[in-house]
Structure formats: C-alpha cells, structure tokens
Amino acid sequence: MHRIRLQCHVPKGQGRHQLLDSSDPTVSNQYVQIKSKALCPQTLRPSPIRHPPPPTPILERRRAMRPLDEKETTQVFEKLFKFTGPNLKHLLERPAVEGPDPEPGRYCLRLHRNRVYYASEALVRRATAVARPRLAGVGTPIGRFTHHGAFHLTVHALDLLAAHARRRVWLKPDTERSFLFGNSVPKSSLARITENTKAGDGVVVMSMADVPLGFGVAARSAQDCRKADTNAVVVLHQADAGEYLRKEEELM
C-alpha cells in the first residue's frame, strides 16, 4: 500500500505533518489537504498565457485635453506652414489677447476629442478646473485628426489663416456664391491672385471687399492662371464659410 504525505487537523501536541494511510476511515476527507505538488490539481492545469495589454487606440488617447506630441505637432505645423510660411512663428510667439487673467501669456495648441484648439495659456489653465467629460472645447478649433491619424484644417481656422496668410485670391462678386456652396474656383471666377503663387501653395479665398470666404490649394501658379482656359480650375476647395450652415451639426 502506498503512503502519501497529507496535512490534516491533529490534536495539539502532535506534529503538523504526519504520515497517514489514505485508506484510513478515521481521516475525514473534508480536512485532508494533499501536500504533494505532483498531486495538486492546480499543477495539472496549464498556466494561463498572459498576453501584453492591447495598445491604447489613437482615438482614446485623444479624448482628454493635452498638449500635442511630436508627431501631431509636426502634422499641424506642416498644414499651417503651407498657408502662413514664415509667419507661423507669430501664431505661437505673439502675446495672447484673450483670457480672464491680466497676463494671459502666449498662445498654445491643445488636443481635445480629436480636435486641435488654439488658445491662450490663461484659458488652458482655467480649463483644467473643468471635468474632462464636461469640457466641450477651449479657445479656437483649427482642425481635427481623422480615424487614421491624418490632420485636416477646418473652417474654424479661416480668420487665423486670413490674418497670417502669404497667398490670397480674390473672387468676382457674382461668383462668390458658387464657392460658398463647396465648389472649386475656376479661372472665370478669379479677379486677382497674389504674385509668385505656386501650384500647391495654400491660399485664402477673399471677396473683393477683403472678407475671407474660405481657403484651398492653388492648382496652378499665378503665371499659369493667365494662360489657362476659362473653365480651368485654379484653386481646389478645402473649406468655406458656407459650411456653418451646410454642416452645422458636424462642426459643432
């Protein structure tokens, strides 16, 4: 008969462990615990495989308001530089003129719910007192990140771009309506264009009264526009002020 080492409750004065016969009827099964690791049920089960935690989705990381990381900052600056050029440094270095504090500081960029906000340091400090789920936004939204991580400027940035843009185009009064409905600018609608404009430059679309209507990308250089056909597209549409009516729910 085989003997195994068992742990059981024994009277005081006796050892904690003793050799007992597994067939002994005096040993109560409910108090017997097998000490042999080879017979322990836990050792017969394979240990669970511990997988590393899944990476945090991009959208989850962008829910809470925070400064932009290096990659996000590069994407935003590349888009802004296409319109402002060297004037980009004035966007962040100029003193802020908004905020409840006597010295609002400078402007900075913050990311909240996939949207990039341009706000003074004073407003950002005050916004930290608001619970993140209740915070709708802070400052001026200038763009948003898509599900794939690409950054796009939105119409909210129109006034900011118009104040620092290097390239502009002016539309004829009777053609403004077409652009405000989301159409690109043909040569027939073009009244003026900034000299030295190159294809691919970001341009702000203005009315003849110098009211910013939207922005886009130059499809042709200023010299090519003079030689192009009447129906040739000279500015590719990106955003216009008419979106405040056409896409009200999306912009909010």
TrEMBL record:
Cellular component, GO, one term: nucleolus
One Gene Ontology term of the molecular function aspect: RNA binding
Subcellular location: Nucleus, Nucleolus
Pfam families in UniProt: pre-PUA_NIP7 (PF17833), UPF0113 (PF03657)
A biological-process GO annotation: ribosome biogenesis
Record domain PUA: where: 167-242
Domain of life of the native organism: Eukaryota
CDD domains the record matches: Nip7_N_euk, PUA_Nip7-like
Keyword Kinase (UniProt): no
Signal peptide (from-to): none
Keyword entries, A-Z: Nucleus, Ribosome biogenesis, RNA-binding
Family of this protein: Belongs to the NIP7 family.
The protein, known as: PUA domain-containing protein
